[in-house]
Specification:
This protein is mostly beta strands. 7% of the residues lie in helices and 51% in strands. The protein has two helices and 13 strands. The mean pLDDT is 92.
């Protein structure tokens, strides 16, 4: 398949095929092979087609002579670690200041090959939300925002940070 995609399974239109042959050939026969494989070169989605069954020594006939095959293709899921991603403070009231114990952290992302491989640190927004909080020290979860992101999973080296909020 295309770069970033993988073959995840093969589905046959028929699991069994009638075979005509002498008894000793039938007793030894466990599988049939094809003359050529289904071509999935460059595929980014499932590919269906027919493959011709190879006539094996001692086999007189198979019905059908071709069988339908579907190759299931899916985007690879990959992991990527991005270090030194800045953490922003959002929702701070105008009459307050805030300081976080940590300014950057490492994030590990898991998702589709196309999305994860093209992602840059600049597109990842890590932040803590201090909306409505009064002066004090808080342990807050770091949140992740990536605009127009498909489904992905992430893990942060520091899932929470301490933030000190002061009145100006």
């Amino acid at each position: 398949p295309a770069e970033g995609y993988e073959l995840t399974g093969i589905e046959l239109a028929e699991e069994t095929v009638p075979v005509a042959a002498r008894r000793e050939v039938l007793d030894a026969l466990t599988e049939l092979t094809t003359d050529s494989p289904l071509d999935i070169s460059g595929a980014t989605d499932d590919v269906s087609g027919y493959v011709r069954l190879r006539r094996q020594t001692g086999v007189e006939n198979t019905l059908p002579t071709e069988i339908g095959v579907t190759a299931h293709i899916a985007e690879k899921q990959i992991e990527r670690t991005i270090r030194q991603v800045p953490i922003q403070i959002e929702g701070l009231a105008d009459d307050k200041t805030a300081k976080a114990e940590l300014g950057k952290t490492t994030i590990q992302l898991t998702g589709g090959y196309g999305f994860i491989s093209a992602l840059s640190a600049e597109k990842i927004q890590l932040f803590v939300d201090v909306s409505g909080l009064e002066a004090g020290t808080y342990s807050l979860p770091i949140q992740v925002r990536i605009d127009n992101a498909p489904e992905f999973a992430c893990a942060l080296a520091s899932p929470q940070i301490s933030v000190v909020i002061r009145n100006q």
